[in-house]
């Protein structure tokens, strides 16, 4: 798990910056009903996406547990960001029209608790918009992905989708739509991928021991055009409406 207090200063520059944030915000807003007047961005990070979740009549809030991230987000959004735990959101029951969680659930071993919290703060008819499986979005069937394929865990994007929807259903949330967006600037070159594999960055996506980890990193580093990024990932958003 990354130390997001340390990562805050460099997070945006290493995650696709404004192009990726614009694409994410457009996709989220496309799934938020026009009648919505309030939206909470859970795990808002530096606020790069949050500040773009704008349209007439929609008031947007952000919440993040990392002080460094929340501080940056507050500057960007004019202060509508609170420091808080996504497991206990600082909002009343049935107080919001929409909740978004982009690139969050895949980080959490107890994601069901967070889904339950998002459902709690939604009004009836409100919508929860979330990415389901970030790792799956990065598999673009490049030569790098083909070398990683034998080590990918048995868990699939389909499994993650089923689990999220099952938990959501327990809390009165039903599927209401989906969207996709491109992670601009996130295509990995062999050099970058090899370094990340060697450092264990893909621990949540790959099942390998230390020897296999180093051997895979070496094979990836030997691919042609080692400094050329491969295709950008495509992330999937799922919208869930509270009955």
Describe the structure.
By secondary structure, the chain is of the alpha/beta class. The chain has one domain: Vaccinia Virus protein VP39 (Rossmann fold, 3-Layer(aba) Sandwich), CATH 3.40.50.150. Helix content is 35%, strand content 20%. It contains nine helices and seven strands; from the N terminus they run ααββαββαβαααβααβ. The protein has helices at 4-7, 17-31, 67-77, 111-121, 134-137, 143-148, 157-170, 190-198, 210-221, and strands at 38-42, 59-64, 81-83, 96-101, 122-131, 173-182, 234-242. A seven-stranded mixed beta sheet has the order 3-2-1-4-5-7-6. Helix 8 (190-198) runs antiparallel to helix 9 (210-221). The longest helix is centred in the N-terminal third of the chain and has 15 residues, at 17-31. The chain is globular.
Task: Give me a quick take on this structure.
By secondary structure, this protein is an alpha/beta fold. 35% of the residues lie in helices and 20% in strands.
């Amino acid at each position: 798990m990354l130390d997001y207090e340390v990562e805050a200063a460099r997070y945006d520059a290493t995650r696709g910056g404004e192009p990726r944030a614009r694409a994410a915000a457009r996709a989220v807003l496309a799934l938020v009903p026009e009648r919505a007047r309030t939206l909470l961005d859970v795990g808002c990070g530096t606020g790069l996406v949050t500040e773009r979740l704008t349209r007439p009549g929609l008031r947007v809030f952000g919440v993040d547990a990392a002080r460094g991230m929340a501080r940056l987000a507050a500057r960007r959004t004019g202060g509508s960001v609170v420091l808080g735990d996504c497991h206990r959101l600082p909002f009343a029951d049935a107080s919001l029209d929409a909740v978004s969680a982009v690139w969050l659930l895949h980080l959490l071993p107890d994601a069901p608790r967070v889904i339950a919290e998002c459902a709690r703060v939604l009004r009836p008819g409100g919508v929860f918009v979330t990415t389901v499986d970030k790792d799956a979005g990065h598999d673009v069937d490049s030569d790098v992905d083909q070398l990683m394929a034998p080590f990918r865990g048995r868990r699939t994007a389909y499994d993650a989708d089923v689990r999220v929807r099952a938990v959501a259903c327990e809390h009165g949330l039903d599927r209401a739509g989906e969207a996709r967006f491109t992670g601009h600037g996130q295509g990995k070159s062999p050099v970058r991928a090899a370094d990340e594999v060697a450092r264990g960055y893909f621990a949540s996506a790959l099942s390998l021991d230390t020897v296999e980890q180093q051997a895979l990193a070496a094979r990836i580093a030997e691919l042609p055009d080692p400094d050329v990024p491969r295709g950008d990932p495509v992330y999937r958003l799922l919208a869930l409406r509270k009955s």
